[in-house]
Structure to design on (166 residues):
DNA sequence: ACACGTTATGATCTAAAGGTCATATTGATT
DNA sequence: AATCAATATGACCTTTAGATCATAACGTGT
């Protein structure tokens, strides 16, 4: 699993995929991360303007990690589709 | 350049490094990204709660990219220090 | 020490995120 | 189709990020 993320929509996708992959419901994720179910819903649907702290909470609860790198000119190696 | 980011502080570091690497001043980054210099200052210093949209603006202006992956259990391959 | 460029802080205002609750809508499952 | 779980939406309220401007603090070269 590897998602390139450049918009809130991408992000929402990545979060949802990861959650589903772990067979979690939004409500479960909510209680594990401290982020409200309603908020998770919005985020997964790409509602812009989420706060970083909220993101980090979800990322941690989902056992994901975020990396920042230079933009790779060519060869998007092993990346899944971007929506 | 590859930064693992799990907190706002990490993020700030990554941003600052990338900016310096490009010999840009906060003001220049500001005009390129549409994010205020004052805001950039706060972000680089790890002020929590930045909005995602703002982040994406900076990332784009700095030619960086964000990826979300599963947390790699072992071997942090080629990652720079995390602060 | 001075001057200039860079970065940090502080105040005010506005827009909007998220906590919170209630409810609507969608989606399975039988 | 009826039922129950899972999501989405909508309203309200509080809090806070970011725009904006002014200014302070910090760095660095001379």
């Amino acid at each position: 699993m590897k998602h390139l993320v450049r918009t809130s929509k991408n992000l929402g996708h990545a979060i949802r995929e990861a959650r589903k992959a772990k067979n979690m419901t939004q409500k479960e994720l909510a209680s594990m991360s401290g982020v409200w179910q309603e908020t998770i819903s919005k985020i997964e649907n790409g509602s812009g303007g989420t706060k970083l702290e909220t993101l980090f909470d979800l990322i941690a609860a989902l056992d994901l990690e975020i990396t920042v790198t230079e933009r790779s000119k060519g060869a998007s190696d092993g990346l899944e589709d971007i929506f």
Notes: The longest strand of chain A covers residues 64-70.
